[in-house]
Amino acid sequence: MEPKEKIILTGDRPTGRLHIGHYVGSLRRRVELQNSGLYDKIFIFEADAQALTDNIDNPEKVRQNVIEVALDYLSVGLDPQKSTLFIQSQIPELTELSFYFMDLVSVSRLQRNPTVKTELKMRNFGESIPVGFFTYPISQAADIAAFRATTVPVGEDQEPMLEQCREIVRRFNNIYGDTLVEPNILLPENAACLRLPGTDGQAKMSKSLGNCIYLSDTADDVAKKVKTMYTDPTHLQVSDPGHLEGNTVFTYLDAFATDEQVSRLTSDYATLQEMKDHYTRGGLGDVKCKKLLTAVLQETLEPIRQRRAEFEKDIPAVYEILQRGCEVAREAAAATMDSVRRAMKINYFDDHALIEEQARRFAKV
Predict the structure, then answer these.
(1) Which of 28, 157, 220, 233 has the most CB atoms around its CB within 10 Å?
(2) pLDDT tens across 266-287, in order?
(3) Cα(74)–Cα(217) distance, rounded to whole angstroms?
(4) SS3 11
(5) How far is the C-alpha of 12 from the C-alpha of 37, rounded, in Å?
(6) DSSP 3-state assignment of 43?
């Protein structure tokens, strides 16, 4: 279906506070897109129903983190006047569309989804995979399609999910007519932001691995975490040549530091590249690199911490923002579902032609 509007949809599972991996991977870009004026509508949601698929025995974890994520959203600069912030479970139309989409996807196709494979392995379900978690790509496709999203800004690890969404939408349109919109992915522009590693050098920053720097961390917390950060295990002496590949400190500097910050916060380098060159030829210690990274992160996070502190003073107002967002989101999803039911010919009571046709048919009996 040819979209009439440019619409963004994106979101996060509320299973914990958001960290700087979320920030460079999606949150920072969302704020830029929100303020760009290039999009007609922006929907950003907390996927609490999806979070429950592997936390069903601990709903309080999800319940408590809904407000934490909302505070993170607002503190990074997401503006409820420009973006619709809402909670997934409060939009029942998403569940209905997911149910219809289930008939368009085979079990074997879900099993081939690389993101599903990775997530299942990481959670070590074995043979006890919750059906709700297994069908996560279908639920995600419904979220995107319900809001007629044209653009979904996510990390590269979500590309298989978005491709599956496109397949589902395409199949629906082929069967029922041109009804839903095929979305496009929008990846981070900075390669270092595609997937920020954990502070311990693990491939992914993850709440469950305890290797995160959170947006809400205090300045002391940030400093301590950077101090223990993984660098180059072969860089034992300051004079030793250092390696950038796999060096978490430089990966973070690539993601956060500008040349202006480097020249202002260090008196020795005009650009980050100059610092990298010094490190690789030897003569630059990890402590100095970590000192720069700490300063850069503090400059980034301090305004976020201050805004969060202001929103924390009136939590009922934050819930009101979410409630208003849910009302707007439900209206949009309901309009899509009217089109879906009409296309599927299950809008029985609105289909007056059907009622009249059946009345004539039975009148002849």
Answers:
(1) 28
(2) 989 999 999 999 999 999 999 9
(3) 16
(4) strand
(5) 23
(6) strand
Q: What is the three-class DSSP state of 32?
A: helix
CA atoms within 13 A on the CB side of 71: 23
Burial class (CB in 10 A: 0-12, 13-18, 19+), 342: middle
| CB 19 within 8 Å of CB 225 | no
Identify the bridge partners of residue 84 per DSSP, sorted by sequence position: 43
- Residue-wise over 247-260: b if at least 16 C-beta within 10 A, else e? bbbbbbbbbbbeee
| Residues 213-243: tens digit of each pLDDT | 999 999 999 999 999 999 999 998 999 999 9
Average pLDDT for the chain: 93
CA distance 360 to 34: 53
pTM, two decimal places: 0.91
Are the C-beta atoms of residues 99 and 138 closer than 8 Å to each other? no
- State the burial class of residue 36 (Cβ atoms within 10 Å of its Cβ: 0-12, 13-18, 19+): exposed
* DSSP per-residue letters across 69-110: HHHHHHHHT--TTTSEEEEGGG-HHHHHHHHHHGGGS-HHHH
Q: Which residues pair with 44 in a beta bridge?
A: 10, 85
Interhelix angle 114-123/136-146, nearest 10 degrees? 130
The position carrying tokens 């879906």 is 340
- pLDDT (tens digit per residue) in 147-186: 999 999 887 778 889 999 999 999 999 999 999 999 999 8
Pick from 37-41, 115-119, 147-151, 237-241: least confident: 115-119
Question: Domains in the chain and their CATH numbers?
Answer: 7-195+314-356 (3.40.50.620), 219-310 (1.10.240.10)
